[in-house]
Amino acid sequence: MQSLEALARDARALANGEVVLNAAESEVARQMQICNACRYCEGFCAVFPAMTRRLEFGKADVHFLANLCHNCGACLHACQYAPPHEFAVNVPQSMARVRGQTYSDYAWPPALGVLYQRNGLVLCMALALGLALFLALAAMLKTSIWGAAPGGDFYAIFPHNLMVSLFAPIFIFAVVALGMGVRRFLKEVTPATSGAPVGGAAAGEATRDALTLKYLDGGHGEGCHESDEAYTLARRRMHHFTFYGFALCFAATALATVYHYLFGWVAPYDLPSIPKLLGAAGGVSLMIGTAGLWQLNRKRHPSHGAAEQKPMDLGFIALLFLIASTGMLLWWARGTAAMALMLCVHLGAVMALFLTMPYGKFAHGIFRSAALVRNAVEKRQPNTLGLGSD
Predict the structure, then answer these.
(1) 297 by DSSP, 3-state: which?
(2) CA–CA gap between residue 195 and residue 21 (Å, rounded)
(3) What are the transmembrane regions (predicted)?
(4) 8 Å CB contact between 382 and 198
(5) If DSSP states are collapsed to H, E and C, what string results for 181-246?
(6) How many CA atoms lie within 13 A of 268 on its CB side?
(7) What 8-state DSSP symbol labels residue 268?
């Protein structure tokens, strides 16, 4: 009877042009109302101060807060209303469910976001191996897949212009799809976060918070929770290894592009060239970070997140580790009979990453950064609630 009443209420709301929250969003709104009355966790992270600036939680507010949440678990362990209490407040888990939903809600095109969420790990690995097989077959049309290329030259296997023609459209697609997704997200949450424009101080604060992962310190600097009640900074550190390792690898590729087109210096490069130093440091850092995140993800207490997101999370982690490890192995295999095959596997993994980038765990960094920007803007505006006034 209650479900029929809820359906009838939603039908009336839709008929009146109102925005209806789904079950996951309604659960976040319910828990935020309880948390807003308690406010014990106000100093833990950005979510709770942002929560106190609201009396009601519409769809845009819920989406904003869900992406502002860093899923550290500190509030769950501190909460007097957590399960088995009848209020059943579990902010990290409820936020994780909505956050995962937003990746597909704002995805462009939407169908790809749904596909990746349901089969993240399998899709990533199948796509990487499928692309590697395609590249291997393409290479076999020109040369043997098992045999040393002259001078360890990658372009003897895949000419430079061919690699550019393969990767440029995929990279542009990833950038456009991510841009479209975050644009739609900001279009919804900006009016709900004061609507004020982004100033320099707000942008600087949000950038600092994102790059330092400020809100993975538990609010007291000792870290968050993983598998038990103990505080740990492990996830923050592994995220740093992963993010800055990826950034170093990207910087190496960007600098190699400058070398190629501006100076005519053709890859591959040897030590102590700057692209090789950046790539080696980035590859090692990325392997450490992804291996650590895989272990933490597998051991984490189930109450800290949404189980349905694990395939998406593990797929992204596995793909990054595959890219880093095959990149390092490619360096080792250069000039050997295994170089061509290793090059195909590495390029296939990189292509798979760019194709899936807008729909999974990479997107969470972009959406979370956007939420941090809007939070930094909103907190600088006058409080419009007027509590206690006439």
Answers:
(1) helix
(2) 22
(3) 120-141, 161-182, 241-262, 274-294, 314-333, 339-359
(4) no
(5) HHHHHHHHHHHHCCCCCCCHHHHHHHHHHHHHCHHHCCCCCCCECCCCCCCECHHHHHHHHHHHHH
(6) 24
(7) P
Could you tell me the pTM of the whole model? 0.88
pLDDT value, residue 160:
83
Residue type, 38: C
Higher-confidence residue of 220 and 376: namely 376
Pairwise CA distance, residues 293 & 307, whole Å: 16
Helix 91-105 / helix 110-118 crossing angle, nearest 10 deg: 140
Burial of 150 (0-12, 13-18, 19+ CB in 10 A): exposed
Residue 189 tokens, joined:
């949450």
Half-sphere exposure of residue 37: CA atoms within 13 angstroms, side-chain side: 9
Residue 125 token pair: 């690995």
Report the distance separating Cα 28 and Cα 38, nearest Å: 15
Q: Which pLDDT tens digit goes with each residue over 109-128?
A: 877 766 666 666 677 777 78
Residue 184 to residue 188: CA distance in whole angstroms: 6
pLDDT (0 to 100) of residue 337: 84
| Ramachandran region, residue 71 (left: φ > 0; alpha: ψ -120 to 50; beta: rest) | left
Q: Please, are residues 188 and 60 in contact by the beta-carbon 8 Å criterion?
A: yes
